[in-house]
Write a structure and sequence with these properties.
This protein is an alpha+beta fold. It has a single domain, classed as Trna Endonuclease, Chain: A, domain 1 (3-Layer(aba) Sandwich). Helices cover about 35% and strands about 35% of the residues. It has a 7-stranded mixed β-sheet, sandwiched between helices. A two-stranded antiparallel sheet has the order 1-9. A hairpin with a 2-residue loop joins strand 7 and strand 8.
Amino acid sequence: MPPLPPQLVEPRTEHDWSKSIWKFLTDSDMWVATGRERQLWDRTRVDVLTDKLALEIDWAKKWTEAVGQACWYATNTSKQAGIILLVKDKTVDNKYVYRCLTVATKLQFVLWIVETTTRQLIVDSETYTLPQIEKRNA
C-alpha cells in the first residue's frame, strides 16, 4: 500500500517552527537558505543558516540563551548572528522581546519575531505568513 500523502499541520514545538521557517526561507526569493540544523565541530547545531546569517530559533522567554547561542554560531560560521524569537502571548512575551531587541541592537544582531498564534514572521517591519508543516501519516 503506498504511503498516505503528508498532512499539513500547525507548528507547535521549536523544531516544528524551525521546519516552517526553513520552508519559508527556501521558498522565498529574499534569502538563500543554505542549511537547517547544521552541526558545528563541537556538536552544537545552528538552527538555520542562510548565505549571510546564522539563526538561532528560541521561545521568547529563553532570549538570553538565544543570544549566547547566536554569538557562538556566528563566531564559528563567519556569518552575522541572528535570532528568531517565538512569541506565544504578546502581553507576556513583550518584555522578553524588548530585552532581546535592546541587546540585538547593541551587538548588531538580526532579530526576527514569530507570532505563533497567527504564524506571522516579522522581519524589518515587514510581515510574512509562515507555511504549515507536513506531518507524515503512518
